[in-house]
Amino acid sequence: MKRIWVAVLMLPALLGAQEMTLSTAVDKALTASHDLLAKRKHIEFLQAGKKEARSHYFPRIDLAGSYTRLNDPVDFDLGSLRTLLIGLETQNKLGDIDLQMLVSRGFGLTDAETVAYASQIASALDAAIPSMNIHFLDQDVWRASLELVQPIWMGGRLRALNRGADLQYQEGLEEFLIDRETVKEETCRVYFLAKLLEEVAAANKDAESGIARHLQQAESLYNSGLIARSQLLRAKVAWSEARKNLENAELDLKTARGVLADLVKSGDPGALVLTTPLPFAPAAASRSQIRSNVLAGNRALKMLDIKRDLIGAKKRGDLAAWLPEVYAFGRYELYRGDLTFLDPDWAVGVGVKLNILSSGEKHYRLAADEKLRQEVEEKKKGVEDLLTRACDQLYDQAESRKNTMASFPARQEEAEENLRLAESRFSSGLGISLEVVDANLILQKIRAERAQAVYGYVVSWLKIHELAQSLDGYIKEMEGVR
User: Fold this and answer.
1) How far apart are alpha carbons 170 and 302 in whole angstroms?
2) CA-based Rg of the chain, rounded to a whole angstrom?
3) Residue 65 is inside which H or E element, if any?
4) Is it the case that residue 1 has pLDDT exceeding 60?
5) Is 329 left (phi over 0), alpha (psi -120 to 50) or beta?
6) pLDDT attached to residue 482
7) Separation CA 358–CA 266 (nearest Å)
8) Beta carbons within 8 Å of 481's beta carbon, 6+ residues apart
9) pTM tops 0.85, yes or no
10) Span 372-395, pLDDT tens digits
11) With 70 as the cut, is the pLDDT of residue 6 above it?
12) Which residues sit opposite 135 in a β-bridge?
């Protein structure tokens, strides 16, 4: 009867039925998860960050332009220097003429001759020497140039920057894989919850059918005057209660199917036919093996290791602040109209920059890096302790349910035999309705408890494998159990 009812539960929407194994459900959930899609975009963002960090090794070329309005044009007036030069040259030439006159006539220039010659010489020099008023800049100054900077050695800053970008990408990838395992675990848990509720609904249906048959028999016996009305009323009350329990079980099953359909983005929950059974496969792993597997595979611990390495990369970058920066540079003027005679058309060179004195932030930054590293180490120890306790708790829960499962075959066989005896006694007039009702309910309860124990056992191991990031292997193992 149980198998018939399970088949009935799996027949809705005959034309649109969608068979779904556990692995298919997991794959669909992984594809449909908006959180995972967002995490994938974040990983792409971190990949772009790695490329951006690499780009700092390459030269940077800037196109620079400016416009400046001065209060006045810039001129250099050297008129006083020109006057001084004319005066000095006039005196030199007057000296030569005075010497010539002294030799030729026995006496030098008179005062009147000196004035006349000085005037002539000064006029000639004034005409010969150009104006020394130099125009340097217009009032409106335009500049345009190409500027290049090529890092040569940055004291380890660029290496630390790229190492940090790589570690951030690894951290994002680990976070994505953790979320991926969470989606797998949730999908498996909901899938098996639906299978559990199928079992519970089947048990309730069998109980309702058994009590319904008993009610028909009680009505027949009552009409024949073989039983009292109180027994007939007891059978009716029991059947009504069984119908209510069946409706609640079917509603719970419908809700679980709806949650699963939402996870896998299936339109009609009633069309889902879950083909992977709720398995019971006792695991052979010991407590120490579980601890070892979880501590070795847990990605939260890996993320803390990456966080520690990130702090190390940051510390190396902070240490580089104590070292000089060496870089090559170049400049090429695109617009030469406003260049002065002091400005070259192009220039190249090598520069060095070293911070000599700061307010102490470099020292404090290194001290903060060390404290942050110690904080991460303590957090890792705390997470290891939490994981160890979680492993022990989940292992004990699984073992408890496994031990419980050992008693169910005998209990169910006894309950089925008790139901047959109660029905036989009632039909022969030796038993009462309450015995038959109780026998049906006991059998239904044992079947539901068995399904719940199997589900609890599977969920405990699901969580263990989620902690160890080994759900893929466990899902394949579950699909292989029949």
Assistant:
1) 10
2) 48
3) strand 60-69
4) no
5) beta
6) 55
7) 62
8) 277, 279, 280, 281
9) no
10) 999 999 999 999 999 999 999 999
11) no
12) 75
Task: For residue range 303-340, list pLDDT tens digits in order.
Answer: 999 999 999 999 999 998 889 999 999 999 998 888 88
Question: How far apart are the C-alpha atoms of 234 and 286, rounded to whole Å?
Answer: 51
- Measured at the CA of 471, the angle between CA 268 and CA 473, to 5 degrees, comes to 110
Residue 433 contacts residue 231 (beta carbons within 8 Å): yes
Residue with tokens 């939260």: 300
Q: What is the pLDDT of residues 171-227, one digit of tens each?
A: 999 999 999 999 999 999 999 999 999 999 999 999 999 999 888 988 888 888 877
- Name the nearest CA neighbour of 207 among 244, 234, 168, 232: 244
Within 88-163, strands assigned E span 133-137, 140-153
How many angstroms separate the CA atoms of 240 and 93, rounded? 142
Phi first, then psi: give them for residue 284, nearest 5 degrees.
Answer: -100, -5
Q: Which CATH superfamily includes the segment(s) 2-62+154-479? A: Outer membrane efflux proteins (OEP) (1.20.1600.10)
CA distance 384 to 292: 11
Locate tokens 């951030």: which residue? 168
- Site of tokens 């292997």: 473
What span, in angstroms and rounded, lies between the C-alpha atoms of 278 and 481?
A: 9
pLDDT at 197: 94
Pairing of strands 346-353, 74-77: unpaired
Give me the pLDDT at residue 3, please.
46
Q: Is the dihedral of CA 167, 168, 172, 175 positive or negative?
A: positive
Distance of CA 27 to the CA centre of its chain: 20
Sort 205 into a burial class: Cβ within 10 Å, 0-12 / 13-18 / 19+. buried
Quick: pLDDT tens for 107-124: 777 778 788 878 888 888
Please tell me the distance from the alpha carbon of residue 12 to that of residue 25, in angstroms, as a whole number.
18
DSSP-derived secondary structure letter, 130: P
Which tokens is 417 given? 């035999």
What's the rounded mean pLDDT across residues 261-280? 86
Q: How far apart are CA 396 and CA 393, in angstroms?
A: 5
**Dist. CA 137–CA 76, nearest whole Å:** 10
Mean pLDDT for 43-64 is 94
> What ranges do the domains of the chain cover?
2-62+154-479, 79-131
| Longest distance between any two alpha carbons in the chain, whole Å | 183
CB-CB contact of 451 with 196 (8 Å) = yes
Q: CA-to-CA distance for 460 and 440, rounded, in angstroms?
A: 30
Paired tokens of 265: 């983005």
- Provide CB contacts within 8 A for 67, sequence distance 6+: 140, 141, 142, 143
